[in-house]
Amino acid sequence: MQASGPTSSSGPRDAIEAEAARLLAKLHSDPTPQEEAEICDWVESDPRNAVAFARAEAAWDAAERLKSAAADVTLPSMPEIVSEEQQRRLSRNIMIAAAVAILFFIFAAIVTVRTFSGVDRYEAALGEIRDVTLDDGSIVHLNSDSEVEVRFTGHGRKVRIVKGEASFEVAPDSERPFDVEVRSALIRAVGTAFNVRMRPALTELTVTHGTVTVHCGNKAQQRVTAGNGAVIQPRTIVLTRLGDRLVSQRIAWRHQMLELDGETIEQATAEFNRYRKAPILIGDTRVSPLRIGGRFRVHDSRAFLSALERTLPVRTVRGEDGSVMLLYRDEESTQASESDRS
To answer: Band of the pLDDT at 80, cuts 50, 70, 90?
Structure first.
């Protein structure tokens, strides 16, 4: 949603202020996370939008105070010559005047400008692993190429995972639950630690400490305790028992490590590519199903490639752009490679 037209034109300006009032009303009517994000995007897309929204917010606050004052109005005692009908009319006129004032404040009040800043965004670039401490003391660990949006209010703490993977260490606060929204699922915790990874077709939850609840669509809420996880899809939640080894493997990235335990080469290269600008490519289908184990630093794919060449029938061909092609090494290809070098 974008406003158009210069501020010198009253028409576009009125349209912007009307849109600001409409969006503010939506913000006060329990909007969805997507609607909240759209409102923030609109406010931040143009300084004129921010001004109009600030005016609407201040007008809303003033209107609420006026409404409260109007409700507390006690009419003075009327002379006996004033009929009951006249008293009713006077009361009705006072309420009408209050309503008109509310509308006036919403659409026309001019106040000190402040930018709407209800949502904070944090992201980690490709190859970066970032730790963010939130206002409540909770910590968000962001994996490579990941982004979250955070919105705290007096009644709750909301985080939306936009993309990638994030691990959370939640500061206890029984009066303000900590909600993580990812796709169609809501993960709620009070004081706990857990990891959430968005994969192409599903979301992967790993609980490392305490307990969280998971809700998705119209499905019943599920409890997931430490050492367990869940596979979350749009209409299903499947709980999984992980064990210490798998939990450690899933959160190894927080220590900038990648643990492989019999993954296929296709799976392993996909993990390393999360941290590389130039990818590792598989140029022979015979390479994909081969399996490898080991512990590697996420930014040291050279050690991984070296292990492949030492332990498996794989050879590497490096491109000028930094990419690496994996080919199957058999007797004929080895001889051809040696011939090319000679």
So the answer is: very low
Q: How far apart are CA 187 and CA 195, in angstroms?
A: 11
Q: What is the pTM of this model?
A: 0.64
186-217 pLDDT, tens digit per residue, is 999 988 999 999 999 899 999 999 999 999 87
Are the C-beta atoms of residues 8 and 48 closer than 8 Å to each other? no
Amino acid identity of residue 106, one-letter, is I
Q: What pLDDT sits at residue 116?
A: 37
Distance from chain centroid for Cα 72: 43
What gap in Å lies between CA 50 and CA 53, rounded to an integer?
A: 5
Question: The tokens of 20 are what?
Answer: 């600001």
Q: How far apart are CA 229 and CA 244, in angstroms?
A: 12
Detail the DSSP E strand segments found in the chain: 120-124, 130-133, 139-142, 146-152, 157-163, 165-169, 178-182, 185-189, 193-198, 203-209, 211-216, 222-225, 228-233, 236-241, 257-264, 280-282, 291-297, 314-318, 324-328
CA 207 distance to own-chain centroid: 18
CA count, 13 A, side-chain hemisphere, 191: 7
